[in-house]
Amino acid sequence: MPTVTVSIEQTRPRGATPAEALRLHDDVGLSYRAIGAMWGITGSRVHQLAKKARNSNQ
């Protein structure tokens, strides 16, 4: 059976930075799912971005 190789690029909108994800979640109170819907990415990806921002602040 032949194999198919697919390149997966994780792209995000220009304003979708880890710091902005954390700010919108913590300060504004939006859920990860709502932020993801606004940015066109999944809520779990937004959660990963916020986690990255939290870890960089320590």
Morphology call: elongated
Q: How would you state the average pLDDT, rounded?
A: 87
**What is the terminal-to-terminal distance?**
48 Å
Extended strand count? 0
Low-confidence stretches: none
Per DSSP, the total helix count is 3
Describe the protein's architecture and organization.
By secondary structure, the protein is mainly alpha-helical. The chain has a domain at 18-57. Helix content is 59%, strand content 0%. The chain is built from 3 helices and no strands. It comes from marine sediment metagenome.
Which secondary structure elements does this structure contain, and how are they paired or packed?
Elements: H1 18-28, H2 32-39, H3 43-57
Helix pairs in contact: 1-3, 2-3
Core attributes:
about 60 residues, mainly alpha, 3 helices, elongated, RNA_pol_sigma_r3/r4-like, RNA polymerase sigma-70 region 4 domain-containing protein
Quick take:
The chain is an all-alpha fold and 58 residues long. The protein has helices at 18-28, 32-39, 43-57.
